[in-house]
Amino acid sequence: MPIARVNGVDLYYEETGRGFPLVWSHEFAGDHRSWEPQVRYFARRYRVITYNHRGYPPSSVPADGAAYDNLTLVEDLYHLLRQLGISRAHVGGLSMGGNVALNFGLRHPEMAASLIVAGCGSGTVDRERFLAEYGGLAAEVERGGMGVLVTRLGAIPTRQVFRAKDPRGWNEFLRYLGEHSALASAHLIRGVILRRKTIFELEPELRRLSIPTLVMVGDQDEPCLEPGLFMRRLIPHAGLVILPMSGHTINIEEPALFNLHAAEFLTAVENGRWGSWSAA
Questions:
Q1: For all residues of the chain together, what is the average pLDDT?
Q2: Is 249 within 8 Å of 27 (Cβ atoms)?
Q3: 173: three-class secondary structure by DSSP
Q4: What architecture does CATH give domain 3-270?
Q5: Pair type for strands 20-25 and 89-94
Q6: Which string of DSSP letters, residue by residue, matches 120-151?
Q7: Over 80: is that where the pLDDT of 15 sits?
Q8: pLDDT digits 0-9 by tens, 83-102
Q9: Positive or negative: CA dihedral 146, 182, 5, 121
């Protein structure tokens, strides 16, 4: 089992394929398995790295809530790549993982050849309601376990289109979610989901981000639409893809479309032809 000891924790990771490194960072409700459609596709031409964040077995599950915050997740990824001997990579992520990818680019721009930021920005708009909803959810998960989280996340409107169009994939998603740690999930809600900067609060940093960036969002993912457009407007070399009739977990809900747009983006970047950006 590939385990890397980094930043005070053990991180489980997988490497598939050969070529320039491409790393994917998973969402709060997912884990490394969430990227299987991308691993199978992109490993034909890239060295694809997927991993479990701290709190997701078989990675370490720290008992102390202070061990969970957004910048710590970013530094976990930084140290993982360094340990794997990777000095530069394409960095992508979805939702919580998209936020990690974005902030990785902000903190370690020299290591990011490009960024793919998908389904990112929940909690940026309608902030007070978001804080109340998720603050209560953390306590419920602590009391009732992962069954509570499966039920609650399974009922979120932004995920219902996935449930309707792909029941088999939806049931697999819920099954994997149910295998996560309730303790870590509660800590992640409080320490990461509720405390990270909103996309609007990152405005000064976004304006200075010179890395070619692809922002992706589903048109049914209402909380992420405005943040997605905001990123497209502020990041100097950002493009925006909105997938039709798609919800929050677009990489497994619409893997063919997701892979198509991501592959076209990576090809453009690697040839110095991503819009107003060109390779030095």
A1: 96
A2: yes
A3: helix
A4: 3-Layer(aba) Sandwich (3.40)
A5: parallel
A6: --TTSSSHHHHHHHHHHHHHHHHHH-HHHHHH
A7: yes
A8: 999 999 999 999 999 999 99
A9: positive
- Indicate if the pLDDT at residue 280 is higher than 70: no
Helix, coil or strand: residue 48: strand
CB atoms closer than 10 angstroms to residue 40: 14
Q: How far is CA 49 from the centre of its chain?
A: 13
Query: How many C-alpha atoms does 97 have within 13 Å on its Cβ side?
Result: 28
| DSSP-assigned letters across all residues of 13-43 | EEEES-SEEEEEE--TT--GGGGHHHHHHHT
Contact by Cβ (8 Å): 235, 260: no
Q: What is the DSSP letter of 14?
A: E
- Domain positions in the chain are 3-270
First to last CA, the chain: 39
Cβ-proximal residues to 137 (8 Å cutoff; 6+ apart), any chain:
148, 149, 152, 189
Checking if the pLDDT of 50 tops 70, the result is: yes
| Overall residue count recorded for the chain in this entry | 280
> pTM for this structure?
0.97
Question: What single DSSP character describes residue 87?
Answer: S
223, 182 in Cβ contact below 8 A? no
d(CA 180, CA 157): 22
The amino acid occupying position 135 is G
- Whether the CB-CB separation of 56 and 181 falls below 8 Å is answered with yes
- The tokens for 142 are 């602590």
Whole-angstrom Cα distance, residue 243 to residue 261? 10
Using alpha carbons only, give the angle 231, 237, 243 rounded to the nearest 5 degrees: 55
CA distance 218 to 242: 5
Dist CA 211 CA 115 (whole Å): 7
Task: Cis check for the bond before 58: say yes or no (omega within 30 of 0).
Answer: yes
Contact yes or no for 23/53 (Cβ under 8 A): no
